[in-house]
Amino acid sequence: MSEVKQGFGTVLKKIPVWLWASVAAILAIVGISAVVLANSNSDPKPTPTKAASNAQLYLTSVSESVNTGETFSVLVRLHPPKAVDGIETTVTYDQTKFEFVAIDSTGSAFPVKLQEEGGNGSVQVIRGIFAPDTVSSDSLVSTIRFKALKTTKNSELQVAGKASSGGSYLPDLTTGSLTLSVR
Questions:
Q1: CATH number of the 57-182 domain
Q2: Whole-number pLDDT of residue 105
Q3: H or E element: which one contains 64?
Q4: Whole-model pTM?
């Protein structure tokens, strides 16, 4: 047994110091890369321009104003009162000022699409999540893209909806709105 230990120690002594330094540097880089990658997968949240202080269902946008003809995104977000497994939302807007373009549910906390349609002044999104999973923290429901049609000082987009838990609707959610101006 002592011969094995001595043999192993002899092998270790024959490895040049520069090789040990290289191995240590590679391990450090791999460790730092793992930390960076783990942190880069987080869901970045844009700074809301206006959200009701206690709204459980609310809208956010990166900007308070957009240019005529510009396509912009509005995020529908949910801050549930308790763990939920389904969400039904309706966003209403003035169709003389905004045109519905698309619904994007990439990154939604609710992966199951039940219904998504928009136009004529409203956008409806119904999504869920399979049991036993639930959503219990502030989360993205969907991103809705609109096109600004004409100049206006202030135009309000409103959201209303219901959430479900275990197949039963919860009491009405408090809701918010978002006011945008079009240049």
A1: 2.60.40.680
A2: 95
A3: none
A4: 0.70
